Structures are given as structure tokens and as C-alpha cells.
Description:
By secondary structure, the chain is mostly helical. It is built from 7 helices and no strands. The chain is globular, with a radius of gyration of 13 Å. About 5% of the residues have low confidence.
Amino acid sequence: MVPESRAGIETMSALPALQAPVKDTELVARCAEITETLLLDPVPSVSSAAYFQFVEPRFGSEELLGAAVPLVRPETLRLTLSELDPDRLSAPMRDALAEFLQ
């Protein structure tokens, strides 16, 4: 089922797990794996849905972005970094993600 709007979309992914004080790394790893699989799907509607439901929402918060980037798979990381403007990140977040921003 496809939601009619983005309202509440965060609850459909690992976003709550990324925001938790203690990260459920097993859940986040499973979500990273399924996101990667969907992003690599040859059907454009599937890969686009994965991007807009699982990748794009991370740009709404530096906390989510900082928690997600070290845990995502290669294609998800490539897409995330291709859309990321490091100049819009705070200095502490740029420092935290420095190894990925090179």
C-alpha cells in the first residue's frame, strides 16, 4: 500500500530506530539492507519509492543524517552523498561525517 501523503512516513522505516538513545543496530542493519535492495531494483517506481520513503526523510534532520550515514550500504550512501550539500551542515556534523564527505 502506498501512502497518499508523506505524513507519518517516518514510522514506516528505521527513522525511529535511528533517533532512539540506544540504537537497535540489528533493526537498522535490516532496514539498510532492504533499502539497498529496493534502491537497486530495475523498476524505476520501486527504486524511486525507496529513495523518497527511506533516503530523503533523513535530510530533514542532521541527527538522522548523522546516525544513518555510517550504517547505510554503498548505493544508499552514494545517493545520500550525491544529494547532500556539506555547506548546509553544521560544523560538528561535517566533522562527524568527514570520512564520508571526502
